[in-house]
Amino acid sequence: MTNLLSKILLPHRYQQLGWFSLIPFACFAYGSAFHDFELKWLDLGPISVPNAFEGTDNNLSNELSILGLFSALFLISFSKEKNEDEYIQKLRLDSILISCYLYFFLHMGGALVFYSLDYLSFLFFNLFSIPLIFILHFRWTLFGQHRTMELSL
C-alpha cells in the first residue's frame, strides 16, 4: 500500500506550482462568479447551433476559472511532501475520509436549506469542498505534528 500510494502521487514540485496558481485562480473565480468579470479574448462569439441549451453567455471565463481552481487544488492535494513517510500517508488517507464525510453532510444540509437557483449556487461552491477540506485538515494536522515535535525537542 505504501509503495503504491507513493507511485501515484505527483512530485513535490507540482505542489509548489499549485500553491503559486491558487491565489490568482481563486481571485479570478471570485470575480467571475460575483462580479461578472470576463476576459474578452475568451469570447466565443455567437454560437451557430440554434437554441443550443438556450445559453446566452458565450464567454469561457467561468470555465477557465473553475478549471484553474480545480487544477491548483488538485496539484496541492495530490503531490508528495518533501519527506513522504507512512505517517504522512496515513494522515493523507484520514484527511480524505474526513473531507468526504463533511462533503456529504454539507450536501445533505444544503439540500434541506437551499431551493431553486440558490441550490444551484450552493452546488457550485460545494464542488470545491472536498479538496478544500482535505487541504485544510491535512495541513492543520501536519502543522500540529511539526509543532509538537519542535516542543518535545
Summary keywords:
153 residues; mainly alpha; 2 domains; 6 helices; globular
Concise description?
By secondary structure, the protein is mainly alpha-helical. It has helices spanning 2-8, 12-34, 61-77, 86-113, 116-126, 129-152.
Terminal-residue CA separation: 31 Å
Number of domains: 2
> Over all CA atoms, what is the radius of gyration?
19 Å
**How are helices and strands ordered from N to C?**
HHHHHH
Give helix % range: over 70%
What does this structure look like?
This protein is mainly α. The protein has helices spanning 2-8, 12-34, 61-77, 86-113, 116-126, 129-152. It folds into 2 domains: 1-81; 85-153. Helix 4 (86-113) packs across helix 6. It is globular, with a radius of gyration of 19 Å.
Write the layout of secondary structure elements.
Elements: H1 2-8, H2 12-34, H3 61-77, H4 86-113, H5 116-126, H6 129-152
